[in-house]
């Protein structure tokens, strides 16, 4: 099984412009800190983002793989 850093390296090595960031979101008066990604102008499919960095990286890697076919 790949470790997180291997997944991140695969994403960055396969794309021109990649950004993974932690963002502040407010929902129902509660503050959440979630992760989002963007690759070459395309971004996380949901505005709220992902609860963990690993979920975000997995989703981003899936997107990169599918769009490289």
A few lines on this structure:
This protein is α+β, with helices and mostly antiparallel strands. 38% of the residues lie in helices and 32% in strands.
Overall description:
The chain has helices spanning 4-14, 53-67, and strands at residues 18-27, 30-39, 42-43. It is an alpha+beta fold. It is built from 2 helices and 3 strands, in the order αβββα. The longest helix is centred in the last third of the chain and has 15 residues, at 53-67. The chain is elongated. The mean pLDDT is 91. It has a 3-stranded antiparallel β-sheet with strand order 1-2-3, covered by helices on one side. Helix 1 (4-14) packs parallel to helix 2 (53-67).
Record the SSE blueprint.
Elements: H1 4-14, E1 18-27, E2 30-39, E3 42-43, H2 53-67
Strand and helix order: HEEEH
Q: How large is the radius of gyration?
A: 12 Å
Mean pLDDT over all positions: 91
Number of helices: 2
Strand residues, percent: 25-35%
Low-pLDDT stretches are none
Quick one: biggest sheet? Answer: 3 strands, antiparallel
**For the terminal residues, how far apart are their CA atoms?**
22 Å
Strand sequence of the main sheet, in spatial order?
1-2-3
């Amino acid at each position: 099984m790949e470790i997180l850093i291997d997944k991140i390296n695969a994403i960055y090595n396969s794309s021109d412009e990649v950004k993974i960031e932690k963002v502040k979101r407010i929902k129902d008066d509660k503050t959440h800190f979630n992760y989002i990604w963007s690759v070459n102008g395309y971004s996380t499919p949901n505005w709220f983002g992902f609860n963990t960095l690993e979920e975000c990286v997995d989703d981003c890697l899936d997107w990169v793989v599918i769009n490289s076919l």
